[in-house]
Amino acid sequence: MFRRSFLGFATAGLLALGLTGPATAQDDFIVVQSTTSTQNSGLFDYILPMFTDKTGVEVRVVAVGTGQAIKNAANGDGDVLFVHAKPAEEKFVADGHGVSRSDVMYNDFVIVGPPADPAEVAGMSDVAAALSKIAEAEAPFASRGDDSGTHKAELSLWNEAGVDVAAASGGWYRETGSGMGATLNTGTGMDAYIMTDRATWISFGNKGDYQIAVEGDEKMFNQYGIILVNPEMHANVKGDLGQQFVDWVLSDEGQEAIASYKVDDQQLFFPNAK
Amino acid sequence: MESFSAILTEALGLILAWDPDVIEIIVLSLRVTLSAVAAACLIGFPLGAVIGAFRFPLRTGVIVAMNTMMGLPPVVVGLLVYLMLSAAGPLGVLGLLYTPTAMVVAQTILVTPIVAALTRQVIEDLYNEYSEQFTSLGVGPFDRVRALLWDARYSLLTVALAGFGRAVAEVGAVIIVGGNINHVTRVMTTTIALETSKGNLQLALALGMILLTIAVIVNGLLMAIRGTAARAAYV
Fold first, then answer.
1. What is the predicted ipTM?
2. Is B88 on the interface with A (CB under 8 A)?
3. CB-based contact (8 Å) between B45 and chain A?
4. Which of A81, A93, B173, B224 could bridge across to B78 with cysteines, CB 3.0–4.6 Å?
């Protein structure tokens, strides 16, 4: 009796082992290396089923920071790269990892802050001036600090404001080294100002009493680009299927799909493919 | 912050609604973790038993190394497996990155040292009891290991549970090699991480409670098997 139970347990374990094949039998899928902002805002959940319905191609999204997404794609671990850091994207193409880069859509960055507004920046639209005030007041500022697209954009804005944040790191300037959502959770917890893309902010569920303090500066423009990973450089890349996805995103149909995605009646991304 | 009763209600609601997405995630979690634990036991039981039952040069060094590996950081294991399975890595041709199989591989690497190290201890204690009998009966090495493993089976069930606990709770390794892809490699822990990053703390905690409940059920089932088996053995 006990022998049978024990064997049954072992068999169950082996069965579980045998069941772990690929999740789907079909080979018609592509892997898109993308960023947390497109994933967390729900955009992909909204537009990808439209593409899959039309073409039968499943899209598997790996959502990480832009820096990591680019590195993964440079290893050949993805068919399409869909991120937001133009200089890094252009370098990716120049290095031969990508076929070509196209603009897809944009949204903008905003700086959110606590209601007490210790640096008195609420309502400002000049981002460089606002950052200078935050630095002067030494008000806590939570940075991604993870080499993501948002982090790169934030650093270039500090640079423009003439503030050396490296010197303040660990003081009022706090690098969380994590994704946008985690940084928002951490930053709101310590009454810090945080720069975030608007899409993530609108769909973020733990805002507390935080509000947008600084918005509307052209410099806070956040451009997304799409790149087919070069099949000649990385033999495993599914060039045809990947190209199909890129073409669809840039087509009128794809662009309209992006424009029609709304959260709380607000459009999150503005298509601008040429 | 939401009250805990609200979180409990949400967790219950998620289960009672039998949401297909949640069920899919739970099933994949169990599939990956149980596969990894089964593989780890297949490797770790015999390995631990051999080290526990025999004396050989550098044995202490092997034991120290094995015990140390019980503390392998999941994120490091994830990175190592990623580098192996990446298209640019030595095993890239297999195309296993971002599949459940990759997650099983990573968790197996995490769990095997735990199973092997704990098995070694259990078997060594038992061996000290049995060694004179083995010698007097002239039992060969293969039969020794088999007898020791068989007689230690109930303790080894607990060893397997320790491995299960480690695997089912870790997020660092599976999120790197699995990529947390919706409907493909999204498991309980990576969903909790994702919902936390979306600021949906209540949903994240509710999922955490479901994960705990699953662990309770698995532990309970194994204890029941053990109880039934032990009673049957003494009839």
1. 0.78
2. yes
3. no
4. B173
